[in-house]
Amino acid sequence: MAAMARGEDDRPVETEHEDAKSYSQQETFATDIGDFATIEQVAKRMIDELLPKIREDGKKVCTMTVKVRYPDFSHASHAQTLKVATDLEAPFYPLVRTLLRAAWSQRRPLRLVSVRFSEVADGGRPVGDVHRGRREKAAAGGRP
């Protein structure tokens, strides 16, 4: 145990990692922001930063969630799922305004905004295959 406390460990380093189940980014503002256009612009920038990572991993996503947090740390979110998984920004841009309006129901300034992509699928799998894989794994006795 003393060797472990000194950072001595002969076990092999494991470099394998599981595939991402979601991709997200958030921004906490130095001062609360109440301007819708500014928040919308921040959310679209997050899309521009997240989708290249998704493409780099050879994945596609179906669901985008926008989350807002108020100064009192209460929060709300709203999501929408596309019919077909994609790794392109364009299908998600039109959703930002609708999701942001739905999540930002209290017209108070925001402390934080977040964008999350989920329902991650390998490159060409359609949306339905994401759910089928979970059901098959669960039926085989694995964790969904």
Structure characterization notes:
This protein has four helices and five strands; from the N terminus they run αβαββαββα. With 144 residues, the chain is α+β, with helices and mostly antiparallel strands. It has one domain (23-139): Dna Ligase, domain 1 (2-Layer Sandwich). Strands 1, 2, 3, 4 and 5 form a five-stranded antiparallel beta sheet that branches. Helix 2 crosses helix 3 (93-103). 21% of the residues are buried.
Distance between the termini: 36 Å
| Topology-level CATH name | Dna Ligase, domain 1
Number of helices: 4
CATH superfamily: DNA polymerase, Y-family, little finger domain
| Number of strand segments | 5
Q: What's the arrangement of secondary structure elements?
A:
Blueprint: H1 2-5, E1 23-33, H2 36-56, E2 59-69, E3 75-86, H3 93-103, E4 110-118, E5 121-122, H4 127-139
Antiparallel strand pairs: 1-4, 2-3, 2-4, 2-5
Helix pairs in contact: 2-3
